[in-house]
Specification:
The longest helix is centred in the last third of the chain and has 33 residues, at about 365-395. This protein is about 40% helix and about 20% strand. With about 475 residues, it is α/β, with parallel strands linked by helices. The chain has a domain at about 50-210 and about 450-465: 2-Layer Sandwich (Nucleotidyltransferase, domain 5), CATH 3.30.420. The mean pLDDT is about 95. It is globular and about 75 Å long. It binds adenosine-5'-diphosphate (ADP). Adenosine-5'-diphosphate binds near residues 332 and 410. Pathway: Carbohydrate degradation; glycolysis; D-glyceraldehyde 3-phosphate and glycerone phosphate from D-glucose: step 1/4; Carbohydrate metabolism; hexose metabolism. It catalyses: a D-hexose + ATP = a D-hexose 6-phosphate + ADP + H(+); D-fructose + ATP = D-fructose 6-phosphate + ADP + H(+). One of its GO terms (cellular component) is mitochondrion. GO terms for molecular function: ATP binding; D-glucose binding; fructokinase activity; glucokinase activity; mannokinase activity.
Amino acid sequence: HTTEKMIGDRLRKYESLFKLTPEHMRRLVKAFTEALDLGLAKPKQVVPMEPTFVFGWPSRQEQGDFLTLDLGGTNLRVCLVTLQGEGKFEITQSKYQLKEEQKQEDGQKLFDFCAECLKKFVDAHLTDENGGLRLKPGENLPFGFTFSYPCSQERIDHGELIRWTKGFQNPHTEGQDVAAMFRKSLERFNLPIELTALVNDTTGTLIASHYANPKSKIAVVLGTGCNAAYMEHVKNIPKIKHLGIDDNTQMASNCEWGAFDSFEHEHLPRTKYDVIVDETSSKPGEQAFEKLISGLYLGEILRLILCELIDEDVLFLGQDTSQLEIPYALDTALLSLMENDQTDALLTVIGIFAHFFALETAIEERQFFRALAHLIVVRAARLGACGIAAIVSRMDYLEEGCLVGVEGSLYNKYPGFVETVHEGLQDIFGEQGRRVLIPLNIITHHAEDGSGLGSAIIAAMTRIRL
Ligand code: ADP
């Protein structure tokens, strides 16, 4: 009974720590909107609002074969996309695993590995029965490189890496043109491929969602990291005025919103666990918003709470907890499995702790862990809703309504995540804190294959412009 009471007390404490009230959410939306405005007005702001040089929406008539490679954070995906016009397409894709060491080695080596994966893919999918390439002599396949780290671009086929995020630290890459580096790797493998577009995954998802449904106007990625993109009027991007782009055009804006509230930490509700995640990360101070929201960090937040309770002799007394004390040992995918457990005895939770950490658990503890996972992920989803609401407010989309295309395993696979984002939007836009009764005009949906498809469409749009 004492354990039960102790756990009950603790849970109440964590509930209040991770709770995000509608009032607090509205304050965050206001601060967020101001940060977006500032990023559009001046270069090098906390939320940098990177111009993408993707001009306007696709016509949905784009056609042809395109290769894409997505370097997202956890996996590496290569796709062959055949655009058939009328919004139709076919995708063949392969996934390649990225090892932890590859995120630390020299940047050129990382791109060499990407080119090697492309070569494997081309050999497997683009050769005829005689082993020859299914391309005419001298023909190059247009290639869209989906590179989901903050880059500053001057053209669609160029981009300087501002800084690595999501645990990547490859030397000799920050400040370099990653498109040029990638071309070097393509040459090394003698591939008949021409890098036509360097695309952020959110921009890709934005264009792909609109291609599938023109009501889609905002894109969000909630996977290893977290970011968003939307279509902005060029006349509302003062910082690129000097480029002399026609004021009547539109350009996709890659918000890089993972950086919201970095350095100053004025707005976000950071707990002491969030502070530890930040301080022990490879980039302390940076990506403050992302660190509260994305797949890379949520499991770690739960693990840090559990470690504190181990130190306080509340959990796992007399057991060897060394496995659980390894940083990042608790993947966010496991929180998903815990919340999905429908059994009374929480058999999946028993299995997770026994299998991954060699720990025995009592039923009250398992319920407690699951409740903690829920609190951490609900806060993440509600913060995500604040970001979406900021773009909706900025673009005045509430009245006419819009769809928000979302990519990423956290959004797509975590039980209840989608509903929690929608509840969050209701809390923000509802009347005086009451959730609106009419169906909400802003609806998020899973944008399947978003970044790969989007990158191909952008490569096609670029070709047409040339
Ligand atoms: P990426 O962002 O690298 O392109 P994903 O969208 O698959 O790839 O996101 C990977 C992240 O999602 C990892 O941080 C992982 O912990 C998390 N993740 C994977 N599966 C799940 C799941 N079932 N539920 C919640 N999070 C998951």
